[in-house]
Design brief:
Blueprint: H1 2-45, E1 50-67, E2 81-90, E3 96-100, H2 103-108, H3 122-138, E4 141-146, E5 155-156, H4 163-199
Parallel strand pairs: 3-5
Antiparallel strand pairs: 1-2, 1-4, 2-3
Amino acid sequence: MLGKKLVTAQKRGETRALCLGLGMVACSMMMYFFIGITIVPFYTNSVWTTETVCKVLKANIKEKVFCPSSEGSEDEEIFPYPCLQVWVNLTASGQEVMLYQTEDTLERNPKCSYVPDKLENSKEVKAQIETIASNFKKYQTFPCYYDPGGTQTSVILSRLYPSKGLLFAFLWPTLMFTGGCLIIVLVKISQYVSVLSAWQ
């Protein structure tokens, strides 16, 4: 009687462990799919792939010129902000080009180097942009990214999804997938050993 209870409990434990392993594998596959349709296209479509050194030539804030949050957006009057324009000397080619914060900044507003988050307090936005401008004037030389193919003459300060960020995004689903497969393998080995022992 005790032996039957132990066998039943063992089977229940194996079933739960197997469900856990399959669930982890299924969740990891969903995470792979989500990363594949969201982050990977941004990474592969980015043309700013080569790192170089940029030197600030001028960083101006156009106080009386307010830029929309996106071109053709209805929020132009709701959320105006001072336009920071940073021009740099590209070491790789010696050209004078405009610097943008990320790839997204160029798409949202090609007139400004920096697009702030939507803040209700205009004084905070102005102070934030002034701080960024002073940092550019203070640190004249810094690494930046440019398009080696020449399709984009502008440069960006940082990529939205660099190679390290993409690898880090794939790290967790990979660990979950590996853990799930390991649990399934261990359960199968346990079942095989149990059957082998019973047969003997």
